[in-house]
Request: fold
Amino acid sequence: MDSAEYSYSVKSEISGFNEQNPRNWIDALKVSIGELKNRNAAAVASLQAIGIAGHMHGAILLDKNDEILHPCILWNDTRSYKQASILDQDVKLQEITGNIIFPGFTAPKLLWIQENKPEIFSKVAKVLLPASYLGFYLTGDFFMDMSDAAGTSWLDVGNRCWSDYALNAGNMRSDQMPDLLEGSQIASSVSKFIANELGIPRGVSVVAGAGDNAAAACGVGIMQEGQGFVSLGTSGVLLTARDAYTPLAQSAVHTFCHAIPKTWYQMGVILSATDSLNWLSSVTGKSPIKLSEGLTHKINGPSSEKFYPYLSGERTPLNDAHIRGGFVGLSTNSNQTKLTQAVMEGVAFALRDCMEVLKKAGPCPDQLLAIGGGSHSRFWLETIATALNKAIACPIDGEYGAAMGAARLAILGKTSEPIKNILSQPTIAETIEPRRDLIDLYCEAFTRYKNAPFHLKNIQ
Reply:
């Protein structure tokens, strides 16, 4: 197994606005494949199938000539909060989509475009998400997998099809939507021109793939009821697989199609997980690793300082685009180490907030797999395990995120292997148990944490 990566920036010139140029993703693809060819030309030459994963909800608008009309409005963009609020008043729309309508979802973004840039809206011939845009680049065809489509607010999530009612509510048409496929279905093959441009074999199959969280679940084998993971990436995710469609929209729990047929998943999402630590890093001039050096290997109890990780608003369970983060309980004794601990605890408590509402939607796993960049911090994971009172299983070193899940979906699409043989769970290096001696203290600290966010909102 080999991997390559390429980074690109987010444009955030206005508060609440987050955009990317979709062409940056194509550049990243070209550079990454070039690196893989340089290191392992034989493996690239034997390539048979490609799986795609991308961040959900982003809106890529194409005109009738397939040209990009506007930068991609990202998942954590909250400009369309007014449009989301209007859509969210439609109870039938919630019933069809299985979710309340968050500002980060795709449908309100298009309403914002219609109201603020009508000249662009009038030219929209197709709406794609990041993964489906990469699929279009590779094949020239328009397709989207169910898990990605479930985050648009245009999908009938229970029946896994576009909803005419939802499309009409968002002033969209069915001909503006790509074809729907399950994640492991072969959509098409790489076009000859693109195969030559990338230097890969002709005839390589492209499967529909998945949205990033569904793909991550495939990467760690979270496929059925009783299995779940906690992800510490830019955002934070607490996800559990579901064998049936059991929405609980008003709780702000996300209920989406999984990347495999007849399966769904539910998750709580916080918008700033490692992003919170990265923010502290930016204002202190210290790297996240340096910030963590003052923390002991094991937790000793909750910090007297509290941090609220609402740097970009919040989703589960607050659904509030305007609430903002902050520290509470600062004193002359507060220092860099204590603030770092407070940030990690704030993320843990926000995940506990997610868990409390997930419990109302269905059973929660007794153990969670840990993935994402933040999962390399044992201190952080022990904090989360104790705050949630859940064991955290740490896979052996390796790539278990969305890229691995997309690759596994490609294997499923190209072979006749049973799903359980491909979407297996990783070997566990360590299981971090909650600190039984500290659970009560963290429960009390969580109660205090819960009492403050609304005060923070009121002082904006």
The mean pLDDT is 93. Residues 221-399+427-460 form a domain with the Nucleotidyltransferase; domain 5 fold (CATH 3.30.420.40). The longest helix spans residues 336-361. The chain has two domains: 19-212, 221-399+427-460.
